[in-house]
Amino acid sequence: MLLTFAFPLLLMGGMAIAAQSSINGTLSVRTDVVTTAWLANVVAAVILWVLVVFFEPPQAATMFSVPIWQLSGALFGTFSMVVIVIGVPRIGTAATIVAVIAGQIMMGLLVDHFGWFGNTQLRLDEKRMAAIALLAGALYFIYLSNVRQKPVI
Question: Rounded to an integer, what distance in angstroms lies between the CA atom of residue 143 and that of residue 146?
Fold first, then answer.
């Protein structure tokens, strides 16, 4: 039952990231990279604040009792937003998203292999290495296709 809902939601989340990347990349051409990333994060913060205040049980006591490294996710999210905003206008949405996904998968494989951040340890085997190679090939061909095409206006 979980898989019935999880995979469609994950696919929709991926689609949302691609749409967001394209929209923010276009916005960054009209403003600038930092302003675009700032706007996206402020809007997200306001929406999340409303959700926390009205729909979540109070967690102030536990929120600040976690190890400080667990709060670093916000820094990674901000960094990701900035590099996506830089990438989309320069190499296109598809190449940017494939590069981001490749980075996510590579980091995910390292986290799994070493069991970082309290995760279960899963060995980096030949099949996982082949997946990295195929993903690198996909990124290469998408980028090569972008370079050979003239932008549609």
Answer: 5
DSSP letter at 122? -
Using DSSP, how many helices (H) and how many strands (E) does the chain show?
6, 0
Q: Please list the rounded mean pLDDT of every run of 10 residues in the chain (153 residues).
A: 73 86 90 91 90 78 75 83 90 88 89 91 93 89 77 53
Placement of tokens 């930092």 in the chain:
34
- Minimal CA–CA distance to 146: which of 94, 73, 70, 79? 94
What is the distance between the alpha carbons of residues 61 and 6, in angstroms, rounded to a whole number? 30
First to last CA, the chain: 45
Residue 6's CB is within 10 A of a number of other CB atoms, namely 10
